[in-house]
């Protein structure tokens, strides 16, 4: 994460260097599918602004994968750096950039009935606790559009709306078992590897995360 914040700081410092003394600055807060977001936006040209900030998003997941019920956390807390283009000189904008930082899925399952792992069925005592981890790419490109009236007036309160897509790539799944009577059994480990591949195949199509944000700005 230190490298992430260093990149964000570099983008911000470049923006301030690029903006002349008459550049406008706004700060914003928003909520949406990326959680809670705080950002700063600097106008560096008549129709161009540079924006950077931080999103806090942790979600308690409770889902069933391959007929096994898992629970745990999805963490999409990231920094972000973007370029906003207002092609018509008004609040409408096209935006692109990237979300930077670790994005993880950490789930576990403790079966209370027989479950199929890979191609075989095992008892709860044999399985123990299943731990599923999924890691997304640290850098997720983003494209979108929106309405941001930060610089429509000289200063004060304004509103923003952004919609787009974060290209996260497919999570790399890692499935392990602990505490079961067969946790170190070679055949069980083979079936566990088969189950891991099944999960990977199921989740490979989920490479895009929708981004929708609604918030307010304050322009200085």
In short:
The chain is of the alpha+beta class and 220 residues long. It is built from 3 helices and 15 strands. It has helices at 2-18, 124-127, 186-203, and strands at 25-32, 35-45, 48-56, 58-65, 68-75, 78-85, 92-100, 104-109, 115-117, 120-122, 129-135, 139-148, 156-167, 172-178, 208-219.
User: In one word, what is the shape?
Assistant: elongated
CA radius of gyration: 22 Å
Low-confidence stretches: 1-21
Biggest sheet character: 8 strands, antiparallel, barrel
Name of the top-level CATH class: Mainly Beta
**N- and C-termini, Cα separation:** 30 Å
Structural class: alpha+beta
Percentage of residues in DSSP E strands: over 45%
The H-and-E topology, N to C, reads as: HEEEEEEEEEEHEEEEHE
Q: Identify the strand order in the major beta sheet.
A: 1-2-3-6-7-12-13-15
What percentage of residues falls in helices of 4 or more residues?
10-25%
Q: What CATH architecture label applies?
A: Beta Barrel
Count of separate structural domains: 1
Give the helices and strands, then pairings.
Blueprint lengths: L1 H17 L6 E8 L2 E11 L2 E9 L1 E8 L2 E8 L2 E8 L6 E9 L3 E6 L5 E3 L2 E3 L1 H4 L1 E7 L3 E10 L7 E12 L4 E7 L7 H18 L4 E12 L1
Antiparallel strand pairs: 1-2, 1-15, 2-3, 3-6, 4-5, 5-8, 6-7, 7-12, 8-11, 9-10, 11-14, 12-13, 13-15
Commentary on this structure:
It is a single chain. This protein has one domain: Porin (Beta Barrel), CATH 2.40.160. The chain is 18% helix and 55% strand. It has three helices and 15 strands. The chain has helices at 2-18, 124-127, 186-203, and strands at 25-32, 35-45, 48-56, 58-65, 68-75, 78-85, 92-100, 104-109, 115-117, 120-122, 129-135, 139-148, 156-167, 172-178, 208-219. The chain has an eight-stranded antiparallel beta barrel with strand order 1-2-3-6-7-12-13-15. Strands 4-5-8-11-14 form a five-stranded antiparallel β-sheet, with helices on one face. The chain has a two-stranded antiparallel sheet with strand order 9-10.
